[in-house]
Amino acid sequence: MRLVLLGAPGAGKGTQAKKIIEKNPIPQISTGDLLRAAVAAGTALGKEAKSYMDKGELVPDSVVLGMVEERLKQDDCKKGYILDGFPRNTKQAEALDNMLGSLNMSLTAALSVDVQFDLLMKRLTGRRTCKSCGQMFNIYSNAPKKDGACDKCGGELFQRDDDREETIKKRLEVYNAQTAPLIDYYGKKNILKSVDGGTGSIDEIFVKVCNALGI
Ligand code: AMP
């Protein structure tokens, strides 16, 4: 399965991607995670990316495209993958089509996880991630048993720099202007599947995801 996950920040793409790969072990390629790793490692690419990420803007296509292409060429992608947070605009989607055309591996589906605007705000401000294992929580809807600590490994929970209120508004604007048009883009290619990611528990939403993808 070669899958693109679409959805606004806070729609639960990353959470559903993690559940898909538990069932179907293929790499989850999150450009946000790759960029955050570059920022943490202090690489030149990370330094360039950070200024955009902190403002809630998209990192330039030239930076992201090279990073994705390099990742897709790795051996573990031969059995499929989930692209999470990429593409983010039409130019990236077209570049992905070209890349996959030359690698002879077209997309199986683009899955859009749809969530209402006011709910996104709450999900993003409440989001906390484990520093050690990456497990995600939400202080409103999926709180850890112990404040500030991961249920799975006991690691320290943190709030992403770009999950603060000022940046969130900008990220949602960027999504509406640049990423939402991709729903039409993949609709026209007849590979779009949509699920309502705003109602029900994570597991209930996952049932809808599995039905939509036939997995
Ligand atoms: P995410 O974790 O997917 O919400 O991404 C966090 C931030 O990383 C975004 O707000 C962007 O600044 C940057 N980013 C992630 N993926 C992309 C992408 N495909 N293109 C450009 N910027 C990206």
Folded structure, characterized:
The chain has nine helices and eight strands. It is α/β, with parallel strands linked by helices and 215 residues long. The strands form two sheets. The protein has a five-stranded parallel β-sheet, sandwiched between helices. A three-stranded antiparallel β-sheet has the order 6-5-7. The longest helix has 15 residues. Helix 1 crosses helix 9, helix 2 packs across helix 3 and helix 6 packs across helix 7. The site of adenosine monophosphate has 17 residues, from helix 2 and helix 3.
The percentage helix is 40-55%
**CATH class wording of one domain:** Alpha Beta
Number of helical regions: 9
Give the low-pLDDT segments. none
What is the arithmetic mean of pLDDT?
Answer: 95
β-strand percent reads 5-15%
Ligand catalogue: adenosine monophosphate
- Structure summary, number of beta strands: 8
- The coarse overall form would be globular
Q: In the CATH scheme, what's the topology name of one domain?
A: Rossmann fold
Reported for the largest beta sheet, the result is: 5 strands, parallel
Which structural class best describes the helix and strand composition? alpha/beta
What is the CA-atom radius of gyration, in angstroms?
Answer: 17 Å
